[in-house]
Design a protein that fits this description.
Layout lengths: L5 H20 L18 E6 L2 E6 L4 E3 L14 E4 L18 E6 L9 E3 L14 E6 L4 E6 L4 H9 L2 E2 L25 E7 L6 H10 L4 E7 L13 H10 L2 E6 L19 H18 L7 E5 L7 H20 L3 E7 H14 L7 E5 L20 E14 L2 E12 L1
Parallel strand pairs: 3-4, 4-5, 6-7, 10-11, 11-12, 12-13, 13-14, 14-15, 15-16
Antiparallel strand pairs: 1-2, 2-9, 5-8, 7-8, 10-17, 16-17
Helix pairs in contact: 3-4, 5-6
């Protein structure tokens, strides 16, 4: 899920390079382009999917997830993904950073939460949003189009400007998404025990198999954020949350918003002066995403603040950001949580709490990879966040239960 140290971040960069090569090897070649259809259209290659055609830059891999189900549809590198990500995708537990990507998959009868239904054609520009994601259901082709962007949304705009609905398209009636889901569940509830998190919410089949065989009873899910590079969530929706909690799982929600200005992440707090405004925008979006996924008021939403070198204006920016994050989440009737390396934002929060400065989150989730399932730490006074702690005690590793393998982080929770 979440990077903890310089060494771990170096490992992640190496993994990205290897994954990029693997993604290139899984490239599905499409017809070569002739002349363009307009000045905005990029040179490159033509991609067609279920009656939707568009031109993409030549360097972008085009990956058919049905033919290559083991490919992780990660959003931290340029790519076009065709089809729905599956449980067999080989994703690390967390992927950081978001760049320009296009995903096309069959649309459901009801558009996904946060989507816009378009009855004719294709939008000519990528929808702008706090988490840099746009979701559009193309009724004229029965296709769901998802776009993401990092620092250059105009690249996606150019691709969409070239898009057409072809004669091969099969129109489908698609209902608008529900503004408020019929089922809404407060999470994670009271729980003391083992949990895990992975890049995407596993299918219900996988959750059932792990419930029967694994020690875990809590599961972390990513609900959004501009620095989240994990694949779009094909399984996560209000019915998934209701089903898992009904089976006995305790779901906890994570949001990867802006990162420390001195970090190497692409989606950062721009300055201490702007930290509060940016935190308010992220927290408001996080609550909206929580509602989309059927997480009721009173649920905990955890901000994932990756490792950064502490000190000076960088620390000030982080504390201001997290303080406003907490104030905004709480004002919107949810409960604030903060995840970070114990040696990064958690130490900052401990020191600020002792000094009586800044708003404190109700729950902390700290990374300390000692493989000890406990929420105790000699660095965190026992009276601080008593009964409101989580610990990531084991980083990225693979476990198999019920014959199903997942790359996960392991957690210990003591929350109520």
């Amino acid at each position: 899920m979440r990077a903890m140290s310089r060494n771990n971040r170096t490992t992640q960069r190496k993994h990205r390079k290897v994954s990029a090569l693997a993604g290139a090897a899984a490239l599905v070649a499409t017809a070569a382009l002739g002349s363009g259809t307009g000045a905005a259209a990029p040179a490159g290659k033509l991609v067609t999917y279920h009656g939707v055609s568009l031109r993409v830059p030549a360097a972008w891999p085009v990956i058919d997830l049905a033919r290559h189900p083991g490919t992780c549809a990660r959003l931290d590198r340029h790519a076009v993904y065709l089809g729905t990500p599956g449980d067999s995708a080989d994703c690390p537990p967390r992927i950081l950073g978001r760049t320009e990507t296009i995903s096309l998959r069959p649309a459901a009868a009801t558009a996904a939460p946060g989507s816009t239904v378009v009855t004719r054609g294709v939008p000519e520009a990528a929808p702008r949003s706090t988490d840099h994601t746009g979701r559009v259901a193309l009724a004229a082709a029965g296709v769901e189009l998802t776009t993401t962007y990092g620092s250059r949304p105009e690249l996606v705009d150019a691709v969409l400007a070239s898009a057409r609905i072809t004669e091969q398209a099969r129109p489908r009636a698609i209902r608008e998404p529900e503004n408020e889901p019929a089922v809404s569940t407060k999470v994670p509830g009271t729980f003391h025990g083992y949990g895990f998190d992975s890049c995407t919410a596993p299918s219900s089949k996988t959750m059932d198999a792990w419930l029967a065989k694994a020690r875990f009873r809590a599961v972390g899910v990513y609900i959004g954020g501009g620095d989240l590079g994990c694949p779009d969530q094909p399984n996560l929706d209000p019915s998934w949350v209701a089903r898992q909690t009904g089976k006995g799982w305790h779901v906890f929600a994570m949001y990867v918003g802006r990162q420390a200005p001195c970090s190497g992440e692409p989606y950062r707090i721009t300055s201490a002066a702007k930290a509060s405004g940016q935190a308010k925008a992220d927290a408001t979006d996080a609550v909206q995403q929580a509602k989309h996924y059927g997480l009721a008021a009173g649920s905990i939403i955890i901000h994932d603040m990756e490792f950064y070198p502490r000190g000076g204006s960088c620390s000030t920016a982080v504390l201001r950001y997290l303080s406003t994050w907490t104030a905004t989440i709480n004002a919107l009737h949810y409960r604030s949580g903060v995840y970070s390396s114990r040696a990064a934002a958690i130490d900052e929060l401990v020191a600020a709490r002792k000094a009586g400065r800044y708003r404190m989150p109700g729950t902390i989730d700290f990374a300390q990879w000692d493989k000890k399932p406990t929420v105790n730490s000699r660095y965190i006074p026992s009276k601080y966040w008593s009964g409101h702690r989580m610990k990531q005690y084991w980083g990225a590793h693979t476990e198999t239960h019920g014959g199903i393998k997942i790359n996960i982080d392991a957690d210990w929770l003591y929350v109520h």
